[in-house]
Amino acid sequence: MPSNGTPHFERRLLNKIQSLTGDAPIRFVFQDEKGVLPFQKEPVDTVLITDRKTLVAMALNPEVGFGDGYAAGTIRIGGDLIRLLENLFYSGAATGRGGLYRRLWERWQDWRQANTREGSARNIHHHYDLTNEFYKLWLDPRLIYTCAYFPSPSATLEDAQQAKMDFVCRKVQLRPGERVIEAGCGWGALAIHMAKNYGVSVRAFNISKEQIQFARERAKAEGLSNQVEFIEDDYRNISGTCDAFVSVGMLEHVGSENYKELGAVIHRSIGNTGRGLLHFIGRNQPRPFSRWIRKRIFPGAYAPALSEALQILQPWNFSIQDVENLRFHYAKTLEHWLSRFENAAGEVEKMFDAEFVRAWRLYLAGSLTAFRVGSLQLFQVVFAGSERKQIPWTREYLYRDETQTREESRWIHAMS
Amino acid sequence: MPSNGTPHFERRLLNKIQSLTGDAPIRFVFQDEKGVLPFQKEPVDTVLITDRKTLVAMALNPEVGFGDGYAAGTIRIGGDLIRLLENLFYSGAATGRGGLYRRLWERWQDWRQANTREGSARNIHHHYDLTNEFYKLWLDPRLIYTCAYFPSPSATLEDAQQAKMDFVCRKVQLRPGERVIEAGCGWGALAIHMAKNYGVSVRAFNISKEQIQFARERAKAEGLSNQVEFIEDDYRNISGTCDAFVSVGMLEHVGSENYKELGAVIHRSIGNTGRGLLHFIGRNQPRPFSRWIRKRIFPGAYAPALSEALQILQPWNFSIQDVENLRFHYAKTLEHWLSRFENAAGEVEKMFDAEFVRAWRLYLAGSLTAFRVGSLQLFQVVFAGSERKQIPWTREYLYRDETQTREESRWIHAMS
Q: How does pLDDT run across B248-306, given as a tens digit for each residue?
C-alpha cells in the first residue's frame, strides 16, 4: 500500500513512538518509497518501519503494533533483537498504559479470551495444538514446555529438565505407593517420570487433545499405562483424592477469576493432610501479559503476583512451606529453546510460513528478556494441608546427593 | 468471694464452656465451698475452676477467661498443660468467635492498642522492658528472643540461635564492607553477629530503651562500637540507605495498618538494587492473635498471613526470592525457653509474683502449642529490589559447608 501521508505526519508518529522509549538507546526509522525519515538521536539499535500502516499501529498500540509489524516483516531490527528488547523493557515502553479507547478494546479482548470451560479449550487449542511435530523441532526430546532447573548454568537442557522433574518430586516428597494428581500435564513427561522413578500412581489432566494422545502413547511404550492415567479434561472436573497435587505451568492459563475454584479442586483432592506444588510464571506486581502475547501467542493467559496466587491456597487454610523464585532458570531455558528454534527455522517456515517464524522468534526472545530483566518471575510454591504433620525439618535434603536422599527417610514426625 | 449461684446456673455455664471444646478429651469441673460440679464425659485432662467469677468469665470470653483464670490460680490443670492446650487448639475453642458484645469490646481493645508512634512505644514497653534480668533467666546468654534455626532437632538452643543468625546473614548474602539496616534489633545479638562475622556496618533500630542500652554495652565490650550503631527510634524514622535491610521478629508489632509505611521505609533504604529479609510470625489465614495474648502479653501484636505480609513489598516492585516456613523450629525454640523458664520459676516469682509466673507459663506453652499444631507459622521472606542483578543461581549454597560458602563467590551475574 503506497503511503499518502506527509512527511510531517509521519515524523509526528515517529516522535510519539520514540518518546515512549524514553532514554533507551534505540533509533526508530521510517522508510517507504518516498525515502527515509530517521529520528535524530544517538543510536545503538535501529527499528526500521517500512510500512505506514505499521507506523500508525505502533503509535496507537506499541505492543501489538511492534509484535505484528515484526511478524509481518514490516518492522526490521538493525542490531541484536534480545538487546533491543531489553532496552524496550527497561524503558517501560513494553508495559505502558494507553488511553480510553485502547482500554475499552482491551476489555473486549479480555472478555473474548475468558477462561470459561469453553474459553479455556479454545485458548489452549490455539497454542498447544500447533502440532507435536512443531514442538519436537525445538523442545527437548520429552517435550517439556516449562522452566527447567539448571543445577549449574552450563547444564544441558535435557539434564536441566530431568533435574526440574526431580526437584518437583523431591519438594513434594513423593514416596512409593502414593497417589498423585497432576493438573495440566503437557505431553506427560512429569507424570511418567514420577511413576517411573518414584513409584507413585498418577492421574494427569489436560485439555489439549494432541498432548494427551502423545502422553498416552509414551506411557504405553514405557509399560506404565497401569500406573499413569492421562485424562482429557478440564482441571475443574478433577475428581477423586490423592496424597499430592502437582501443577507445573498450568496456572498461567487458569485466570485469576478461577483461583477460588482451583483452590476448591486442590482441597477436595488432598484435604487437610496432603501436600502440593504450584509452579507458575508470576510477577512482582499484578499486571497483565503483554497485549501482543495475549493476542497472538497465549490468549487468556495471566501471570499472577505471588500474593494473588496465594489466594488459591489461603481460603483452605493451606500452609505455605516453601517459595522459590527461579526466573533466571527460565531465562536460561529460553536461551536453549530460542537457539534450537533458530536452528530449525527453515523447517518451521516450511510447516507454517515466514510470518509465523518471526512471531515465534519474537515471543521466545521477548520471554527470555522478560525473565532476565525481572518483568516476569517463576515461582515454585510448596504447600501442605493445615493438619499435615509430616513436614521436612529443613530444606537441606533438597541439596544433598539424590540417591542418598531417596534412600533415607527425611520425614520429621513433628508430633506424637 | 462466696458463691451465691444455684448449681443449676453453674451447670449451665459449665455446659456452655464444655460445648466450645467439641469432642476434645477435656473435662471441665467447677468446685467451690458447696462442692464439686463435674461435667459427665470421658475425661483425659481436667480443668478445675475454683471461682464463680472465673466460671462466668470463661463462659463469656473463653480465651481471656481461661488465661486470666489460669494466671490468677482460679483455674488449675489436672494433667499436662501442653497436651491440654493442643486439644483446645484442635477443638477450635481457642479461636472461636463471640457475639456482638464481645466483638465491640474487641474493637475497643484494638483501638487502644493501635501501633501509632506513641502506641508502639507503649506496647513495646509493656513486654520488652520487663527488665533484662528477667529475660536473662530463661533466654540464651545473648538474649535472642526470636525463633532459632536447629540444623538438627537435637542442637542446643545456643547453637541454634547462632545457626539462625548465620542463616539470615547468608540468605541476604552479606559481604564485607556492606551497610545493613536492622529494624527491631532486640538486645542487639544479630547486629553484633553481622558486624563481627561478616564485616558489615550496621545501623540497628529499636524503641525499647532497656534493650538498646544493653546492646550498646555489648557492642562496646566487643570493640564494635564503630561498626554497629544502636539507635533508639521507631522504624518509621529510619533514614539513610543501605545494601541490605533485615528485620527479625519486629513485623508482629508493626500492625497491618502500617505495612504501607514499612514498605516505603524499606524502599527508601535499599532502593531498587538492594535486598532484604523479613522474619516474622505468620498465619495460614488472616486472623488476630488470641485475645488473651493481646490483652496480657503482646498488646498491639498481629501475625499476618503471607499474602498480607507481601503487601509490604508488592507496591515497591520488590521481587520475592525465597520464602521458608520454620514453624517447627519455633516450637522447638519454645520447648527450650519453657524448660528454662520452669527451672527459673522460683526466681521469676521473687522478681514478680506467682500470677506472673503462671501467666508467662501459659503464654510460652500456648505459643509452643500454636506452632506445633499450625495455628501459627514462622516465615522468612527474602526479597530483592526490582533491578537487582546479583541473585544466587540456586539455594544450594545455604546448605553447604559454611566456610566453603563464605570463601567462594556464589554470585551469578545474570546479566552482562
A: 999 999 999 999 999 999 999 999 999 999 999 999 999 887 778 887 788 888 999 99
B95, B285, B375, B388: which to substitute to probe chain A, counting the most A Cβ within 10 Å?
B285
pLDDT band per the 50, 70, 90 thresholds, residue A26 = confident
Domain range for B73 is: 8-94
User: Domain with B36 in it: what CATH number?
Assistant: 3.30.1050
ipTM of this model?
A: 0.90
> For residue A99, what is its C-alpha cell?
488511553
Q: If you write DSSP's letter for every residue of A111-173 in order, what string do you get?
A: HHT--SHHHHHHHHHHHHTS-HHHHHTTS-TT---S----SSTTS-HHHHHHHHHHHHHHHTT
A314 chain-B contacts, CB cut-off 8 A: 284-285, 305, 307
Decide if B59 is inside a domain.
yes
pLDDT at A1 over 60: no
Q: How many CA atoms lie within 13 A of B378 on its CB side?
A: 24
As a dihedral over the C-alpha atoms of residue B15, residue B20, residue B26, residue B27, rounded to 10 degrees, the angle is -10
Domain edge (last residue) among A62, A94, A126:
A94
pLDDT score for A2: 41
Which residue of chain A has the CA closest to B398? Answer: A396
B381 domain-assigned: yes
Please check whether residues A89 and A125 belong to one and the same domain.
no
One-character DSSP codes across A230-241: EEES-GGG--S-
State yes or no: pLDDT of A93 exceeds 60: no
Specify whether B173 is located in the same domain as B83: no
Percent of all residues in chain B with a pLDDT value above 70, rounded to a whole number: 86
Task: Mark whether A68 and A212 lie in a shared domain.
Answer: no
Q: Do A386 and B284 touch (CB under 8 A)?
A: yes
Orientation of helix B157-171 relative to helix B189-198, angle to 10°: 60
Residue A226's CATH number? 3.40.50.150
Dihedral pair phi/psi, residue A39, rounded to 5°? -100, 130
pLDDT digits (tens, 9 = 90+) for A227-240: 999 999 999 999 99
Interface size A-B, in CB pairs within 8 Å, comes to 111
Selected residue with higher pLDDT from A112 and B231 = B231
Q: Which residue intervals of B22-148 are DSSP H helices? A: 52-60, 62-72, 81-91, 100-112, 117-128, 132-136
What is the reported pTM?
0.90
Q: Is the same domain home to A270 and A349?
A: yes
Residue at which a domain ends, from B32, B61, B94? B94
Inter-chain CB proximity A307 and B305 less than 8 Å:
no
Q: Is residue A37 part of a domain?
A: yes
Residue A211 falls inside a structural domain: yes
Q: A414–B331: do the CB atoms touch at under 8 Å?
A: yes
pLDDT tens per residue, range B36-80: 766 555 667 889 999 899 999 988 888 888 989 999 999 999 888
Instruction: Tell whether A408 and A317 lie within a shared domain.
Output: yes
Q: Cβ–Cβ of A377/B319 closer than 8 Å?
A: yes
Do B68 and B142 belong together in one domain? no
From B322, B399, B412, residue closest to A325, measured CB to CB = B322
Chain B residues in contact with chain A using a Cβ-Cβ cutoff of 8 Å: 149-153, 284-285, 305-307, 310-311, 314-315, 317-325, 327-328, 331, 372-374, 377, 379, 386-387, 391, 393-396, 398-400, 412, 414-415
Closest residue in B to A415 (Cα–Cα): B372
Same domain? B167 vs B244: yes
